[in-house]
Design goal:
Structural class: alpha+beta
CATH class of the largest domain: Mainly Alpha
Number of domains: 2
CATH topology of the largest domain: Glutathione S-transferase Yfyf (Class Pi), Chain A, domain 2
Number of helices: 14
Helix content: 55-70%
Strand order of the largest sheet: 1-5-4-2-3
Length: 284
């Protein structure tokens, strides 16, 4: 787990906060994952919205909490966790009632969550091409301030540079066709395995909903609204997704405002007209 020791937190006031606090953003996939989990478990928490679109995550105050400049961040009575899957596992240990991990061994859960986490850049490739309609470029001034910020944690500073490089490359080249194609193939390989498993069980790890289902729901939602042909290629995965999507605990966290839906529509139409729909890429 990625816990930031209290002596490395520069924005010291959060160390005195009592109870469960979550820094998040409405449209952040990892934030959505955490909010769904909190909904399902009925856990009380205090929200702190960090607007990624306006660059609030690059402020010195927020970087003083998480030098990577990413959400979500959990603060539990001054204890700070910064990675979404680590936060899920942390909360599952703290709140074992109505378990979302009991049907699978801890090592299997960790392995499957790591597989999901390793695809984070791939879902970002899809989202930036098919959901954001060309939006997402960072202001150069804020990106430079983010790049030059130094914390007392060298490891996190190095991980931050991966984010910097992504946004620099996105600003120069956008998301290339090759990157999209490679990402889609990675997802297809995983879904092929889960399609096979769903022939014999209700959820991805068995007959009970688990942390792995929650994590993969977010990816599946983003691919679904981007035009991934689940009904044709993975019908059992499609049924699994629709069952979860119909539940308010899931739906309410991913149901975007009308403006975002219009941006997505524009992005999909543009890609379809240029012959670069997801279905077209997968069929080639």
């Amino acid at each position: 787990m990625v816990q930031i020791p209290s002596d490395q937190i520069k924005s010291k006031e959060i160390l005195d906060w009592k109870g469960l606090h979550l820094f998040h953003f409405r449209g952040s996939s990892c934030s959505q994952k955490l909010r769904i989990y909190l909904n399902l478990k009925g856990i009380s928490w205090t929200p702190h919205s960090i607007n990624l679109a306006s660059g609030k995550n690059y402020s010195e105050w927020f970087l003083g909490i998480n030098p990577k400049g990413l959400v979500p961040v959990l603060v539990d009575d001054g204890h700070v966790e910064i990675e979404s899957n680590d936060i899920l596992e942390y909360l599952e240990k703290k709140f074992p009632e109505n378990s979302l991990s009991s049907s699978t061994s801890n090592s299997d859960i960790k392995s499957l969550l790591k597989e999901e986490d390793d695809l984070h850049e791939d879902i970002r490739n899809i989202a930036y091409r098919y959901m954001f309609g060309g939006l997402g470029t960072k202001q150069l001034k804020k990106l430079k301030e983010y790049e030059e910020y130094k914390s007392t944690n060298q490891e996190l500073d190095q991980l931050k540079m991966k984010e910097v490089e992504f946004y620099k490359n996105f600003g120069r080249y956008g998301i290339t066709d090759t990157a999209v194609k490679n990402s889609l193939y990675k997802f297809s390989e995983c879904y092929e395995r889960y399609e096979s498993l769903l022939k014999h069980q209700k959820f991805f790890t068995g007959n009970d909903l688990s942390l792995v289902d929650i994590a993969w729901f977010i990816y599946t939602y983003r691919l679904f609204i981007s035009g991934f042909p689940f009904d044709d290629k993975f019908p059992l995965v499609s049924q699994w997704f629709q069952k979860l999507y119909s539940q308010k605990e899931f739906f309410n966290e991913v149901n975007d405002p009308l403006l975002f839906k219009l941006i997505r529509l524009y992005a999909r139409i543009s890609n379809n007209l240029s012959g670069k729909s997801i279905k077209k890429i997968l069929d080639n």
